From TrEMBL:
Residues 301-381, 729-809 form the HRDC domain. Keywords: Cytoplasm, Exonuclease, Hydrolase, Nuclease, Nucleotidyltransferase, Nucleus, RNA-binding, RNA-mediated gene silencing, rRNA processing, Transferase, tRNA processing. Residues 923-943, 1671-1698 are annotated as: Disordered. It comes from Helianthus annuus. This is polyribonucleotide nucleotidyltransferase. The keyword Nucleotide-binding does not apply.
Length: 1698
């Protein structure tokens, strides 16, 4: 029920005038999103463009550290101040800001007395002056005058804690900030002790903060001098603090783990991220009430939570209308207290309002109405209340762990500890508020995305398509192989000194951004002999990295090629130029550039000179380009752009200059170095390698590298930086491996760098802490990691699964610890050796130390840089191109049961060991699969090799990850159940199902039914339970398990060939159940995969999915929690080609919506089947295609010859029994004729001319089988050709219907429903809770059913004899279908508190008995007085699919209301139940390989018309349903009491309840924790009596109430005990008994006396304190026996309030 809108306009006069009202400020408090009208919209209109997006962070950074110490500004008192209160002053302020390069800004806001908050002041300081702007007076003018100044990227704005100020500027003034420095972020990066402004002022400026004004009301006018001073101090010293911090940041070392983010860059990046936030107005949703502070800890039940939700809505509406803060209208704490107490009178509500709340006081009646209405609608809040309690327990546990961790001594600085504590508290509040602030998560798009750059991040090796292969195809041929190093060496030394080129500024420059310019560049390069080359790359926000720029310089001109815009064209136009051996390419540090050219452009370089290698050979002091420029060219290195983001466009002039300097001087440096190399002496130890040849050889080897894509291997996790020093155990190392592979997968999928997805340091920290809840994981994520935050549950599942597979990683953990100890020892020895005086020259010693450091890093990271290890070889034989392919990782797969545990850690294998090729089978899947690999393997030093014994033992073990919905299922085969014909283990989350398929070796006799048995069982151990009975073994199959068995059988049977008679058994068992992921659809898929992998000759792969409808969106395989909110429960099984089985239930869903859901499910099934087919093609067993037992083909012709004409006549008999008898007689005739051996002897002599009618007699079973098939075919032909069915009906015609009610006088409700020859007797029984059906399931969440339908199909209903006993699988399935069809029309438990049992006894059957149960059950429910929402009818539809075989035109024919013979001979049985508006239940079985969606649509629409006709016939029921409770039905009265009063009703050991039942004669009293009391009785009088007793027991006394005619129950020395109501006794103290002083009550009172008393107090224990004295007149007698009244007989009705 919605909350009535509060009328609050009349209250303003009494609330008090707020200061802002005199300014006429207008705000939009509607529930519509905030519109950023001052921002431009993107071309596609999908988003707003922030002005900061046009700039890179590097545009704002000045990396020059001044030698001059920053100067502290003069005190506030001696600095000029301007208070801006008019437009003139605002204009002057703008003029001064335009002349400044930087200024400090802060805002003062007020959040308390307005809905969105108000900006009250703006403080601005330049280097010489302070300004305070009155934003209340100038609110409409500030934006137009200051917007451009704040947007100007050339002016730096310094702010402290800018998060809220940025938002307020946007909200109130439409101002968006560019180029901002946040001193709070700088404090955090510099790891100051605190990051508050008070600390910074005190620490750096020696200024004491005036904290008394921190929470001042800044709306007040005029401002006091103290307030003005406090406001000025917020910005007065901020520029000075900025100078100090920037200087410190420039001098701080860069974190080696993030070399691309120096401290200063980090601060500017954080500040830019803050600026990029966009304000979002608070939007109220259905779940907004969950954000109330303290809600988790309140421990509310559903009624209380309903009150919270409705009061929250009222508060929100009121606050928006009057522009008031919600905490002023009704504080969270008071709101929760009201919900806890649930006051239902205004008096009780007033008692709760301890302080004045004007809007509540003026609307007491409305608030009480909201409370009472909410209590009636509490059922919907049960799941939420339960969830809140669970989360509160998790939060409390996490908090305890956090507190314990804080108390532990650790090597963490105090500042970090403080920061962590703040983050933890903040996080706890965020969890408590569910997704508070989630909408503020604005992520900068990556610049490269607008160029639509496509990259292949798959696990397939990189293909060098531009290289030729050798004749045998074994290797690739690099174009450089045709030449020797000596071909490129010119040993002529010129006498002329190389000439330094002119400066960059005076050299012609061309920025190449289009194909025309690229062609011109290629032409110029073809005309030159040498040119220098460099590339600018970005590795941080893409998986493989991206080449952003290509810089080229000739002797006279510089070029920069935009590699983003021309990515596709660069290779086409420049490939031949780079390949040309006559042209020398000069590069510096070419190792990576060579690989990037191959990867991005398919360019391979010949004839290259690397100045980096020349620097090493010449043994220069350094080999960096900065050193060479400074040393040879006297050009200072501009290092500030070394780590710039080269993806940003447009490039600034400074960035272009920096890029040009990479190549501009390189040819000159080449000339100098080549001259030096030629003049340098040859090393006598290597006379064959003079220095110049050495450089060319090294450059040659670099060119010969071939790019290899990063392939994840089973040992890749060992490359994580800091792994050895982390000292991890086996469990932690297993987590590292799993997370490493998850990170790799995500990075490939979204083309993101792994360090952005999850940095190594954070990954190791997670592994150390091993969090097992999302809350604990979030505590570890101190900075934002978006991709991890979106997959918290999945990360937790990886962690928990990894821990279970930790044994495999124990050897590796041990080995890593040993290596770490050895490394430390080696390092200590090395440092000692460096310090010793040796005979080695200093330069050599230094070189050795450097080499040792490099080696240590390589060893520490195991295989880091292994592919860069190129050995120098002079011989031409060394020119070899090697491609190394690596084995895919098992680490992540091990988390889900792969055989990662069968591995040995082998670091002793030799480097020269032969490279082996090992294939791990998998299926290439889209997201979120985690294997896309079929790669060769290399076992090298330091690798963990697979255990060969394990590989041999499980050689057919395969794992497949299949995406389904928003997650994936994991299929494993070849490890468990290897002796079965087919077996799989399938996993969804924590739910695991094992399915096996076996079949007999010998074929059974032919029959018309496939001998297939399906057994499905949910083992209680899967949920950590065991049977509660004496026998602990799983017993009789449960109804739910029967239903799943039927679903699997109905899905698989259509795909089996008709003549396959090997007995087949499918066993499916639930081994693990997590309570979240359902097992039924998973079991269908598991059975389909197992059959597909086995020898059973099925025609199609089968899979199943569930589809729910949640918030009007279809969800594939929703969780059990999501299904509680779903309006649809559709289970569909099918194959790639069509639909095989459907079963589902919904809440009056239209057919059109149902068809959409079927299409969604069909697409999901097709995707699964495609992946499974790939697995089956590779690893499935050969099908037994030669095991069919086919009847002789000629037998069909013989049967038709004998029975054809007579069969046509028999099939036109309308009645079932005569037709069946005629068919039986004809069948005997046919069998007799075709199986007898005719005599060939006449009169004792052999008749030589005898020709037998049937040369070979046939087996009786074959004849019977063929006869049935011929009968079916004739029936189909009759329908197709004649358009008439056996009983003479047309295709859409419904059989005759008769119904009556009340024909069983003693039943609570009864109905007889007859449709043709199908008849159901439906009986309804009503009862209380004791009659409910108890259920024993895995999780025990629904332990009782208060509505159930039991279907009975005795053999007598078809005129036969059969077993009598437990219900069959068919009876259970049909009963459940009818039950679920009727359930949506039932009233709520609040409206009809009865348990309802429906029995459907089938007394005749000729098709559609389950749908007859629906119709009969509906009439019986109405007859029992159950107030149904609408009538429900059901119909069964049939199908003749392939009409061409029966002489038709091929159009499928849909049959309405099919009979038994049409069901047996047709292709489909579709049962649909519902009303005129929609469907409530549906079920479909087919006998063909699948039907299309169009056929399904036709059948559903035809069924709708049939339902309407049946509903019309049901209205003609005679006699009609009574629609009122039968006189035999019990009466149930529902009462609501305070939850804490329930124990008073029950009493000690149930004493009070038993007493009530005995005293009043009621049958049962049911009490619930939420205060609901249900009384069951056979008569009304006993109900009313019990109600009165319970009302008195739970009566809530109120101080001041008077109770008359009360009996004294006990007299004691200090007073008397008086019963004011049954079971409620209070004490009247001796001092309160009489006006006169009384020493003892014994003389004046005795037990049984009747007195009037007043309740004067309820003490803290809840005891009642009464007074008789206060009711006595001042004069008169005090004899208690003078006024004797019977109990309950008083002038005011027994009880009145004062």
């Amino acid at each position: 029920m919605g909350t009535p809108k509060a009328k609050v306009s009349f209250q303003l006069a009494s609330v008090g005038r707020r200061p802002q009202e005199e300014y006429g400020i207008r705000v939009d408090n509607s529930n519509n999103p905030f519109e950023h009208v001052w921002l431009q919209t993107s071309e596609d209109g999908s988003r707003r463009i922030h002005p900061l997006e046009k700039h890179s962070v590097m545009d704002f950074i000045n990396k020059t550290a001044s030698d001059v110490e920053p100067v502290k500004p003069p005190p506030v008192e001696s600095t000029s101040l301007k208070v801006v209160q008019d437009v003139k002053g605002l204009k002057e302020l703008v003029a001064k800001l335009c002349g400044a390069n930087e200024f400090a800004v802060n805002l003062k806001g007020n959040q308390y007395r307005s809905f969105q908050g108000l900006t009250c002041l703006m403080q601005i300081s330049t280097r010489t002056e302070d300004f305070i702007v009155d934003t209340l007076k100038l609110r409409v003018h500030i934006g137009p005058y200051l917007r451009e100044v704040f947007k100007d990227p050339t002016k730096r704005k310094v702010m402290h804690g800018a998060d809220q100020c940025i938002i307020w500027l946007q909200r109130d003034f439409g101002i968006y900030v560019c180029n901002m420095f946040d001193t709070v972020q700088a404090s955090k990066v510099l790891k100051f002790e605190e990051n508050s402004l008070e600390f910074l002022l005190r620490h750096f400026c020696k200024v004491a903060a005036h904290e008394e004004y921190e929470n001042a009301d800044w709306r007040l006018r005029p401002l006091t001098d103290e307030m003005l001073r406090y406001a000025r101090e917020d910005t007065h010293y901020l520029l000075f603090l900025y100078d100090l911090m920037q200087r410190r940041l420039l001098l701080s070392p860069t974190d080696p783990e993030c070399p691309e983010a120096p401290p200063l860059v980090e601060v500017y990046q954080r500040s830019s991220d803050i600026c990029m936030q966009l304000y979002q107005k608070e939007i109220s949703t259905e779940n907004s009430y969950l954000n109330i502070y303290g809600l988790h800890a309140a421990d509310l039940h559903a009624q209380q939570l309903a009150i919270v939700a409705e009061l929250y809505k009222w508060r929100d509406a009121t606050a928006r209308e009057v522009d008031e803060s919600t905490c002023y209208i009704l504080p969270d704490k008071v709101l929760i207290e009201i919900a806890k107490q649930m006051p239902v009178t205004t008096l009780k509500l007033c008692h709760l309002l301890k302080s004045r709340h004007p809007y509540i006081v003026r609307n007491l009646g409305l608030v009480v109405t909201i409370i009472t209405n909410s209590m009636q609608n509490a059922v919907a809040f049960e799941p939420v209340a339960k969830k809140l309690k669970e989360e509160h327990f998790d939060m409390r546990d996490a908090k305890n762990v956090t507190v314990a961790n804080r108390k532990e001594p650790a090597e963490v600085a105090g500042s970090e500890s403080t920061s962590n504590a703040v983050e933890d508290d903040t996080f706890e509040k965020e969890v408590g508020n569910f997704e508070v602030g989630a909408n503020q998560n604005h992520k900068l798009g990556r610049p490269q995305e607008k160029y639509n750059i496509r990259v292949d991040n798959s696990y397939r090796p990189f293909e060098h398509v531009w290289l030729q292969r050798s004749e045998d195809g074994s290797r690739l041929i690099h174009p450089f192989e045709e030449y020797s190093v000596m071909d490129f060496i010119d040993k002529t030394v010129s006498d002329v000194e190389p000439v330094k080129p002119p400066p960059v500024e005076t050299t012609p420059f061309k920025l190449v951004q289009d194909v025309k310019d690229l062609k011109e560049l290629a032409t110029k390069l073809r005309d030159t002999d040498e040119f220098s080359v460099a590339l600018k790359q970005n590795q941080h926000r893409s998986f493989q990295g991206l080449t952003c720029l290509m810089q080229i310089s000739t002797r006279t001109e510089d070029f920069i090629v935009d590699a983003f815009k021309l990515r596709v064209q660069i290779g086409l136009y420049l490939r031949e130029v780079f390949k040309d051996p006559t042209k020398r390419k000069v590069m510096h540090g070419a190792d990576r550039c060579i690989l990037w050219l191959q990867r991005d452009f398919g360019i391979y370089v010949c004839n290259m000179f690397d100045t980096g290698q020349a620097s090493k050979v010449l043994k220069l002091e350094e080999d960096s380009l900065e050193y060479l420029l400074s040393h040879f060219c006297e050009v200072p290195a501009n290092e500030e752009y070394n780590n710039a983001d080269w993806r940003v466009r447009p490039l600034t002039d400074a960035m272009l200059r920096h890029a040009r300097e990479d190549t501009h001087y390189l040819l000159f440096i080449y000339d100098l170095m080549r001259r030096r190399l030629l003049l340098s002496p040859t090393d006598p130890e290597r006379p064959e390698a003079p220095p110049v040849i050495e450089v060319y050889q090294r450059s040659y080897n670099i060119c010969m590298q071939l790019y290899q894509k990063d392939i994840l291997t089973e040992n890749s996790y060992l490359n994580i930086y800091g792994l050895r020093a982390a000292d991890l155990n086996g469990q932690q190392l297993a987590i590292v491996a799993g997370l490493c592979e998850l990170r790799d997968y995500i990075a490939r999928e979204v083309d993101e760098s792994t360090c952005y997805i999850l940095p190594d340091k954070v990954l190791i920290e997670i592994a150390k802490k091993m969090p097992v809840t999302t809350l604990k994981l979030c505590h570890i994520l101190k900075r934002r990691h978006p991709y991890i935050e979106r997959n918290l549950d999945f990360v937790i599942s990886i962690i928990t699964n990894s821990v279970q597979k930790a044994a495999a990683f124990e050897p590796a953990a041990k080995k890593l610890k040993e290596e770490h100890i050895e490394m430390i020892a080696t390092r200590n020895i090395k440092f000692a050796n460096v310090e010793e005086a040796t005979e080695v020259e200093g330069s050599e010693s230094t070189s050795n130390v450097v080499e040792d450091d490099t080696f240590e890093k390589k060893v520490g990271n195991v295989i880091v840089g292994a592919n860069q290890n190129h050995k120098l070889e002079v011989s031409s034989a060394s020119r070899i191109s090697i491609e190394v392919h690596k084995k895919p990782s098992c680490a992540f797969g091990a988390m889900f049961g792969n055989e990662a545990g069968k591995r040995k850690y082998n670091l002793e294998s030799k480097a020269a060991e032969e490279i082996k090729v090992v294939h791990k089978h998998s299926v290439s899947l889209p997201s979120p699969s985690f294997t896309d690999r079929t790669e060769p393997s290399r076992e090298s030093d330091g690798a963990i090799a697979p255990d060969k014994e394990a590989t041999t033992l499980f050689s057919d073990y395969h794992t497949v990850y299949i995406p389904v919905g928003d997650r994936h299922i994991i299929v494993e085969t070849g490890k468990i159940g290897r002796q079965a014909s087919g077996s799989v283990t399938i996993r969804d989350g924590g739910t695991i199902i094992y399915t096996s398929v076996c079949m007999s070796n010998v074929s059974s006799e032919p029959s018309d039914l496939l001998p297939m048995i399906v057994h499905y069982q949910e083992r209680l151990s899967a949920a950590g339970k065991t049977s509660g009975g004496y026998f602990k073994r799983e017993g009789r199959i449960k109804d739910h398990e029967v239903l799943v068995c039927r679903q699997i059988d109905r899905a698989l049977r259509p795909t089996m060939p008709k003549d396959f008679y090997h007995e087949t058994q499918i066993r499916s068992e639930v081994w693990s159940y997590d309570g979240l992921h359902s097992s039924d659809s998973l079991a269908i898929t598991a059975a389909g995969i197992a059959v597909a992998l086995s020898e059973v000759p099925n025609t199609n792969t089968v899979a199943g999915v569930r589809v729910g409808l949640i918030d009007d969106k279809f969800v594939v395989n929703p969780t059990t929690m999501e299904m509680k909110e779903s309006k649809l429960d559709l289970l569909l099984a099918g194959s790639e080609s069509g639909i095989l089985m459907i079963e589902g239930y919904c809440d009056f869903l239209p057919e059109e919506k149902l068809l959409q859901a079927i299409e969604v499910a069909k697409d999901a099934v097709r995707a699964i089947c495609e992946q499974v087919d790939n697995l089956v093609k590779k690893h499935g067993k050969p099908k037994l295609l030669d095991s069919f037992k086919l009847p002789p083909p000629e037998l069909y012709k013989h049967v038709e010859e004998i029975a054809g004409d007579e069969l046509v006549k028999i099939l036109q008999i309308k009645d079932k029994i005569p037709r069946r008898e005629a068919l039986s007689s004809l069948a005997e005739k046919v069998v007799s004729r075709l199986t007898q051996v005719e005599e060939s002897v006449v009169d004792g002599e052999f008749d030589e001319g005898y020709v037998p009618l049937f040369p070979n007699h046939f087996y009786p079973k074959d004849v019977k089988l063929v006869f049935k098939r011929v009968c079916s075919e004739y029936l189909r032909k009759q329908i197709v050709k004649g358009g008439k069915r056996s009983d003479g009906r047309t295709l859409e015609e419904i059989r005759g219907i008769y119904s009556e009610c009340r024909f069983l006088p003693s039943a609570h409700g009864s109905a007889l429903f007859t449709r043709g020859e199908t008849q159901s007797v439906a009986v309804v029984t009503l009862g209380d809770k004791r009659m409910a059906q108890r259920i024993d399931n895995l999780v025990g969440t629904e332990d009782v059913k208060k509505f159930y339908l039991q279907y009975s199909f005795p053999s007598s209903c078809v005129g036969g004899v059969g077993r009598i006993g437990a219900p069959s699988r068919r009876e259970i399935g049909h009963g459940t279908l009818a039950e679920r069809a009727l359930k949506p029309c039932l009233p709520s438990e609040d409206d009809f508190p009865y348990t309802i049992r429906v029995e459907s006894n089938i007394t005749e059957s000729n098709g559609s008995s389950s749908m007859a149960s629906v119709c009969g059950g509906c009439l019986a429910l109405q007859d029992a007085g159950v107030p149904l929402k609408s009538s429900i009818a059901g119909i069964a539809m049939g199908l003749v699919l392939d009409t061409q075989e029966s002489g038709g035109d091929g159009t499928p024919l849909i049959l309405s209301d099919i009979t038994g013979s049409e069901d047996a001979s047709g292709d489909m049985d579709l049962k649909v139940a519902g009303n005129e508006d929609g469907v409530t239940a549906f079920q479909m079985d087919i006998k063909v390989g699948g039907i299309t969606l169009s056929t399904m649509k036709q059948a559903l629409l035809q069924a709708k018309e049939g339902r309407k006709r049946i509903l019309a016939e049901m209205l003609k029921c005679s006699p009609p349903p009574s629609k009122k409770l039968a006189k035999h039905a019990p009466l149930i009265l529902v009462m609501k009491v305070e939850p804490d009063k329930v124990n008073l009703i029950i009493g000690s050991g149930g004493r009070n309840v038993k007493s009530i039942i005995k005293e009043t004669g009621v049958e049962y009293v049911d009490t619930q924790d939420n205060g609901t009391v249900k009384i069951t009785s056979r008569d009304l009088a006993s109900l009313e009596k019990a109600k009165a007793i319970i009302s008195n027991l739970t009566m809530v006394p109120i101080v001041g109430d008077v109770y008359r005619n009360c009996k004294i129950t006990a007299v004691v020395r200090f007073g008397v005990f008086i019963e004011i109501a049954p079971g409620r006794v209070g004490l009247c103290h001796v001092s309160e008994l009489s006006l006169d002083q009384m020493s003892t009550p014994y003389d004046a009172f005795k037990v049984g006396d009747i007195v009037d008393v007043k309740l004067i107090k309820i003490n803290e224990k809840g005891q009642l304190c009464l007074s008789r004295k206060q009711l006595l007149p001042d004069q008169g007698t005090d004899n208690p026996n003078k006024s004797q009244r019977t109990a309950g007989g008083s002038n005011d009705g027994g009880r009145s309030g004062c």
